[in-house]
């Protein structure tokens, strides 16, 4: 998956920085989503459990749908942290003079 992302990023026309950043951001989001979806069910469940634990008592103030959404967002954020360079800020830094 990383190789595919690198290939797709390198295929973007570097002469258009705004488009490069927009398309690069979109590609990074797709990559991270694929990473999440490719987790084994047991691994994903473990990540969700860690996220629920991390949210702690905040969960009690949420409805169940809100809690589920928050738990998944925290778990996905932990996955994003494994790839710290995949950010819009990094893409802008690469195209800025």
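^ Assign residues to that structure.
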């Amino acid at each position: 998956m990383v190789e595919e992302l690198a290939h797709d990023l390198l295929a973007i026309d570097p002469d258009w920085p705004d488009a490069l950043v927009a398309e690069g951001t979109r590609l990074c989001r797709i990559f991270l989503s694929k990473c999440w979806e490719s987790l084994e069910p047991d691994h994903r469940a473990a990540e969700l459990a860690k996220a629920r634990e991390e949210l702690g008592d905040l969960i009690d103030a949420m409805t169940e749908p809100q809690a589920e959404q928050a738990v998944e967002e925290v778990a996905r954020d932990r996955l994003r942290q494994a790839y710290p360079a995949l950010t819009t800020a990094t893409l802008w830094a690469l195209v800025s003079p």
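Residues 2-95 form one domain.
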